């Protein structure tokens, strides 16, 4: 473990950008806030999905073009990918013990969650504005 | 900073401890969280398909209607119900309640009951309604 080798570098400098460097509370609070948003919106999303599973394309598109559904979907997906990133970050911190692999996994998670959020944003906008 | 290797308690899942409702539910919260992180991309794919037009939606619907789609619905709906109810249990803990042994077990069994009930409902609605799209 490189962290256990003696070094002149300050431990705080090592830990910055890798793990907790006085940002632990922020992570905790954002995880809870996104959790509450998701918990409140999940019943609505499940109802929407169940009613749209048997529907044809025109009905699905017309339903999602409703601004109320669009804004709730957008809120859900932004909270979802943010919450997902925060959770996967902790899973990697806890179980990936190889330093380089851990950093690679963290960047991959950040990249994938950002991509998911951006594609969702574009798709919802396209449905809403091209209606 | 000490350079000495310190003794560690064994990981909760493994041969050292017998499975307990507390540890099993804790690791299941993380596993379902990872499953849902993957599941999020299916929701995004659905929205992208809707935005791209009827042809793209037909492709998505054919996958959703296949055996793979049904397995994904079954797994994601179970994971969502478990993570939702156990997440609410976590929020109750964050408010400082339910930390007695009795409270931990009672909360755990409530989560298992609600998850089973709501998962079966979602499987029923998902599988009985599917096919028309």
SSE layout and pairings?
The complex is a heterodimer of chains A (131) and B (133).
Chain A: H1 11-15, H2 24-52, H3 57-64, H4 67-95, H5 99-129
Chain B: H1 21-52, H2 54-65, H3 67-94, H4 101-129
Helix pairs in contact in B: 1-2, 1-3, 3-4
Please provide a written account of the structure.
The complex is a heterodimer of chains A (131) and B (133). Chain A is mainly alpha-helical and 131 residues long. Chain A has a single domain (25-129), classed as 3 helical TM bundles of succinate and fumarate reductases (Up-down Bundle), CATH 1.20.1300. Chain A is built from five helices and no strands. The longest helix of chain A is centred in the C-terminal third of the chain and has 31 residues, at 99-129. The model of chain A has no long low-confidence stretch (mean pLDDT 90). The radius of gyration of chain B is 20 Å and the shape is elongated. The longest helix of chain B has 32 residues, at 21-52. Chain B is built from four helices and no strands. With 133 residues, chain B is mainly alpha-helical. Helix content of chain B is 76%, strand content 0%. Chain B has a single domain (21-129), classed as Fumarate reductase/succinate dehydrogenase, transmembrane subunit (3 helical TM bundles of succinate and fumarate reductases, Up-down Bundle), CATH 1.20.1300.10. The interface between A and B is large, with 38 and 33 residues.
Q: Features of this protein?
A:
heterodimer; A: 131 residues; mainly alpha; 5 helices; 78% helix; B: 133 residues; 3 helical TM bundles of succinate and fumarate reductases; elongated
């Amino acid at each position: 473990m490189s962290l256990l080798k003696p070094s002149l570098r300050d431990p705080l400098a090592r830990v910055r950008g890798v793990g907790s460097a006085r940002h632990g509370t922020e992570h905790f609070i954002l995880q809870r806030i996104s959790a509450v948003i998701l918990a409140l919106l999940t019943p609505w999303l499940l109802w929407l999905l169940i009613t749209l599973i048997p529907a044809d394309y025109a009905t699905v598109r017309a339903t999602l073009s409703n601004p109320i559904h669009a804004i709730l979907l957008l809120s859900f997906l932004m909270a979802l990918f943010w919450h997902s990133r925060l959770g996967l970050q902790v899973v990697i911190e806890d179980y990936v013990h190889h330093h380089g692999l851990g950093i690679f996994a963290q960047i991959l998670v950040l990249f994938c969650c950002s991509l998911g959020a951006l594609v969702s944003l574009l798709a919802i906008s396209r449905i809403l504005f091209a209606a | 900073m000490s350079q000495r290797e310190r003794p560690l308690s064994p990981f909760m899942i493994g041969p050292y401890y017998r499975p307990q409702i507390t540890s099993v539910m804790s690791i299941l919260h993380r596993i379902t969280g990872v499953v849902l992180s993957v599941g999020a991309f299916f929701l995004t794919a659905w929205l992208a398909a809707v935005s791209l037009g009827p042809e793209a939606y037909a492709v998505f619907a054919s996958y959703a209607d296949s055996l793979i789609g049904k397995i994904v619905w079954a797994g994601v709906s179970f994971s969502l119900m478990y993570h939702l109810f156990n997440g609410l249990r976590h929020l109750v803990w964050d408010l400082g309640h339910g930390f007695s042994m009795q409270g931990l077990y009672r909360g755990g069994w409530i989560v298992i009951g609600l998850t089973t009930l709501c998962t079966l409902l979602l499987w029923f609605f998902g599988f009985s309604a599917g096919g028309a799209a």
